[in-house]
């Protein structure tokens, strides 16, 4: 699959998709609290997507994924199924879903601390988001995906955590998954060169301890192993002549909490 370069018109269509996508996350956030089930959060997102005239591209993905969202608790890194278990104080929840609107798709994920979490969990969530912003600074035309990967890896490992190797970011736009891959580990100067018009789902995934992520029996749930908390932070980013452009989420000055 070749890398798809988006025209200025296509970038504006993706920006509109991303605006609606971000709006859904903003409405979801106050609902993420102890006592709520991840299935209830899934149902809210599915309704919100439909109300905006959008499509949930994860639903039926590869013929088997049965939900609009991924709801990944604690040691689950990504692709967790929503369920009837109520969230409880101390949980760490990753919410990840793509959104398609008028033929264009964006991808976005956030990690939520449920009530009061441990200091180590707080640090993990913070470092994962900060790794995103560190990587974003080098997502400039002429740099390579390896430059981004090395920046993320150095930041995460410098704070005592582990970058997930088994899952990576990717191109996104006309399809939910496009080329190139966007890993969060590797060597600077390697990988495809970033060019204006590329649109990328950039998504650091981080665990407390080194781990080999395994897929559970449902064929989707990716676990770092019992007791090994994971965090995930993702936005869709466009490469432009003027630098990286966020198509989902908010600039750091607004989003930092």
Helices and strands in order:
Elements: H1 8-28, H2 38-51, E1 70-73, E2 76-78, E3 92-101, E4 104-113, H3 119-136, H4 145-158, E5 162-163, E6 169-171, E7 178-182, E8 199-202, E9 205-207, E10 214-215, E11 222-223, E12 230-232, E13 235-240, E14 243-246, H5 252-255
Antiparallel strand pairs: 1-3, 2-11, 3-4, 5-9, 6-7, 6-8, 8-13, 9-12, 10-11, 13-14
Helix pairs in contact: 1-2, 3-4
Task: Summarize this entry quickly.
The protein is an alpha+beta fold and 257 residues long. 28% of the residues lie in helices and 24% in strands.
Describe this structure in words.
This protein is of the alpha+beta class and 257 residues long. It has one domain: Alpha-Beta Complex (Creatine Amidinohydrolase), CATH 3.90.230.10. Helices cover 28% and strands 24% of the residues. The protein contains five helices and 14 strands. The strands form four sheets. Strands 7-6-8-13-14 form a five-stranded antiparallel β-sheet. β6 and β7 form a beta hairpin. The longest helix has 21 residues. The C terminus is likely disordered.
